[in-house]
Amino acid sequence: MQTVLIIVHLIIVLALIGVVLLQRSEGGGMGLGGSGGGGVSGFMTGRGQANALTRATAVLAGLFFVTSIALTVMATSTRAPRSILDGATPAAPAPGQQAPASPQGGNVLEQLQRLQGDQPAAPAPSAPAPAAPQQ
Q: Where are the alpha helices (DSSP H) in 23-133?
């Protein structure tokens, strides 16, 4: 159902873009909205075209808002509610109290290494220093 609504929403968006681009601009942009008999505005009178395009824009804008709200409701209805405190870390201990020992211990890097199965290797022994030249 959500896929169908997304497709309908996209069709409405494209139609809305087309209707807005067909409207006559105030400055007569690109010479298409002139008062001559030809051109884009020739199929209707100026007043009739303005009313039809204005109504089409209003209807498409209303449908756009309805489909947007419906998509939002559908997207949020599948999520389970959760608290922001679920992922919270335990609070720091009060001064004078000892922090509870973590079962894994160590810093973040050591915990990540344990998760990957990489145990830190012992440092490699350094090569012996070369002997001093004899005189």
A: 46-77, 108-116
